Backbone:
């Protein structure tokens, strides 16, 4: 009987195995050739952190709660005909991804074996060959998309960065929706997910300034269109629910990246308070991986999502600072400095982050860079806010200056 680990070791394709939490537990030489990582560099790392996969249109493929994890948990295979994976050196590699889900009764440690191939359009003969190969590799044959468990057909909504929908592992081509206002309505309802939005508030968001009678008629048509689109995806049209003249997006059968982002943060906060730093850092890393960009970034000038965008951005900046502090406490000042630079891309004038970066650079022995960071901060504050650095920042600068 072929063992699951043997599928990785002896595979002619790039392959790796993951446990139920998607941590890499086996990695072969072909995977190293394809993505540049040696096995020792990826073992025990989440596969989403290694691959950093994207669909070709830029939507996130690899996340802590990706559809693959749901499939593997139900002993269902998962595959993507074309996606992008990040090479160790930073460039993107075009891939085809397939997998074998391993029943837990067969192997308690391995949840799935994942195969990667450089992407190329497959002929029918290639698909037949792949099917036969999968049968030979342990007898776990991939079932078609149409046979997936009904429970997997949930609506996955990505709001952090570019807005996107995934149903049953497939991206939803929003550009084909006939009424574009149905997309905007969905975005507004997602922003208030689980809470009823009064009709008047929706009218102001979708058609500001339009007389109410005309707005009500348009809203009825738009709600109908949205329900029709959801129904066409195999979803319950009553996801968009009406009650007492207001509308809400029901939470049943719904996955929203912003919800999972906040859930991971709360879990990390609790672990950190209990002194479980490694576990907290794991949660923070999962939350950080979900933050693909500011909330509904394509709607950055819309008032109805501005407050939520700012709230989530503040949580993200706090997350990066907490991660940096935990890494610094372990002596990883380079990692802490990198997180500070990442935060400054989002918020260039946040002085507390500049000050932390100065300290982390200094503790790495990069005194000149720490002093240069102070000068950049001083110029930035003068230009953008017409203020001087805070006394704490000046004290740190003098301390670094005197250390030479």
Residues:
């Amino acid at each position: 009987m072929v063992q699951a680990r043997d599928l990785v070791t002896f595979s002619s394709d790039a392959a790796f195995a993951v446990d139920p939490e998607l941590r890499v537990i086996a990695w072969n030489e072909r995977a190293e050739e394809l993505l540049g990582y040696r096995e020792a560099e990826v073992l025990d790392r989440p596969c989403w952190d290694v691959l950093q996969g994207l669909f070709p249109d830029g939507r996130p493929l690899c996340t802590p709660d990706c559809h693959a994890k749901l499939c593997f948990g139900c002993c269902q295979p998962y595959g993507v005909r074309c996606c992008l994976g990040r090479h160790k050196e930073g460039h993107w590699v075009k891939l085809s991804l397939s997998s074998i889900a391993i029943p837990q009764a067969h192997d308690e440690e391995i949840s799935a074996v994942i195969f990667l191939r450089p992407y190329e359009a497959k002929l029918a003969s290639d698909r037949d060959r792949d099917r036969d190969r999968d049968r030979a590799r342990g007898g776990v044959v991939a079932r078609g998309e149409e046979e997936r468990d009904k429970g997997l057909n949930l609506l996955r909504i990505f709001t952090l960065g570019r807005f996107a929908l995934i149903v049953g592992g497939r991206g939803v081509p929003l550009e084909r929706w006939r009424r574009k206002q149905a997309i905007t309505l969905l975005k507004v309802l997602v922003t208030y997910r689980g809470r009823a939005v009064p009709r008047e508030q929706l009218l102001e968001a979708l058609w500001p300034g339009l007389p109410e009678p005309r707005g009500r008629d348009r809203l009825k048509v738009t709600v109908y269109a949205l329900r029709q689109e959801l129904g066409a995806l195999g979803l319950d049209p009553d996801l968009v629910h009406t009650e007492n003249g207001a509308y809400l997006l029901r939470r049943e059968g719904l996955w929203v990246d912003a919800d999972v982002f906040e859930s991971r943060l709360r879990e990390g906060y609790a672990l950190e308070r209990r002194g479980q730093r490694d576990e907290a850092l794991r949660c923070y890393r999962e939350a950080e991986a979900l933050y693909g960009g500011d909330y509904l970034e394509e709607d950055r000038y819309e008032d109805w999502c501005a407050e939520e965008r700012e709230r989530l951005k503040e949580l993200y900046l706090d997350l990066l600072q907490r991660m940096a502090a935990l890494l610094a406490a372990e002596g990883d000042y380079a990692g802490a400095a990198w997180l500070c630079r990442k935060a400054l891309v989002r918020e260039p004038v946040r002085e507390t982050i500049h000050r932390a970066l100065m300290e982390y650079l200094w503790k790495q022995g990069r005194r000149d860079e720490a002093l240069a960071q102070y000068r950049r901060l001083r110029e930035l504050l003068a230009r953008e806010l017409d203020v001087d650095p805070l006394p704490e920042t000046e004290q740190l600068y003098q301390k670094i200056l005197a250390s030479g």
Remarks:
- The domain at 4-151 is CATH 3.30.450.20 (Beta-Lactamase).
- DSSP finds 16 helices and twelve strands in the chain.
- The first strand starts at residue 14 and ends at 18.
- The chain has three domains: 4-151, 153-255, 331-404.
